[in-house]
Design brief:
The protein contains three helices and nine strands. It is α+β, with helices and mostly antiparallel strands. Strands 6-3-8-9 form a four-stranded antiparallel β-sheet, with no helix packed on it. α1 runs antiparallel to α2 and α1 packs parallel to α3. The protein starts with a helix and ends with a strand.
Length: 289
């Protein structure tokens, strides 16, 4: 009987050991599988952390906002720190891996927020660039229009100015001797009688006007009684031979001016130029033998 009991007890112990061994083996197998699973998951998390850190670098390149760039730099450093922590964790440390997995989820969400924000800013910048381009084009068009109007105004002003200038025609110079008779001999000329007609011009300013006559000798020297006899033409003072005041009414009128010859008159061609209101209004020539 004692032997039978002993066999039963031994059998029970063997069965218990077998059950315990089975469960121990099964648990060890589960732990091995879990460790392999954590190892794969850890590797995937490392890749994600590394990718996110790179994305923060790329986002910083896309923006010019210093404040936002500093925030991105801070998030990148945080991501790199978590990556280093993950690399130091053993695959058997399930609690730490789970913590870093939660941190990864937060990093992913924060990164997505910045991506959306920067994308919106870039779209806004593009819209502003287009708007600025449109405004610039409109400004350039307006500037060109203003420039064209200014040129048209200047051209019109020039036309009006030209239209309002006096015009001297029928310029005739008589060369007279001492008896006031015509002569073409240089040695006999004692007086020059220069007649000219100022044509009708309803656009010209009426009133008192100074008419200046310049007579040049064949050598281009000006016939002039005094060096102080000057008037302004093209922003400089030049000598005149004869000055005459007239009352201009806008109607055609004929005038005659005289030059008393007191100097040597060489043979050749002489030129007569008539000026009024700062403009040369006519010219002609005559010759002496």
């Amino acid at each position: 009987m004692d032997k039978k009991k002993s066999l039963i007890i031994i059998g029970i112990l063997v069965a218990a050991v077998a059950v315990i061994s089975f469960f121990a083996f099964h648990q060890m197998q589960q732990n091995k599988e879990m460790s392999e699973l954590f190892s794969i998951e850890k590797m995937e998390m490392e890749n994600e952390y590394s990718t996110f850190a790179t994305q923060y670098d790329e986002l910083q390149i896309q923006i010019n906002n210093d404040s936002l760039r500093q925030k991105l730099e801070s998030e990148k450093l945080k991501t790199q720190r978590l990556l280093e922590e993950l690399r130091q964790v053993k695959t058997s440390n399930a609690a730490e891996i789970m913590r870093l997995k939660k941190e990864l989820k937060t990093v992913r969400a924060v990164l997505r927020t910045y991506v959306i924000q920067i994308d919106s800013l870039n779209k806004l910048n593009e819209a502003l660039k287009e708007e600025n381009k449109t405004v610039k084009n409109k400004y350039n068009a307006a500037t060109r229009q203003i420039s064209n109007l200014a040129k048209e105004k200047e051209t019109l002003h020039e036309k009006v100015s030209l239209a309002s200038q006096l015009d001297a025609t029928n310029i005739v110079t008589k060369t007279l001797n001492k008896r006031n008779r015509d002569t073409s001999k240089a040695k006999d000329v004692k007086k020059l009688a220069i007649s000219f007609t100022i044509v009708k011009n309803i656009t010209a300013t009426t009133g008192n006007k100074s008419i200046y006559v310049r007579i040049t000798k064949p050598d281009n020297e000006i016939l002039c009684k005094s060096d102080s006899d000057v008037f302004t033409f093209e922003d400089r003072n030049i000598n005149y031979s004869i000055k005459k005041y007239i009352e201009y009414t806008g109607e055609e009128q004929t005038n005659t001016v005289y030059w008393k010859v007191e100097e040597f008159m060489p043979k050749g061609t002489y030129h007569v130029y008539i000026f009024a209101d700062g403009n040369m209004i006519g010219q002609n020539s005559f010759s002496l033998k």
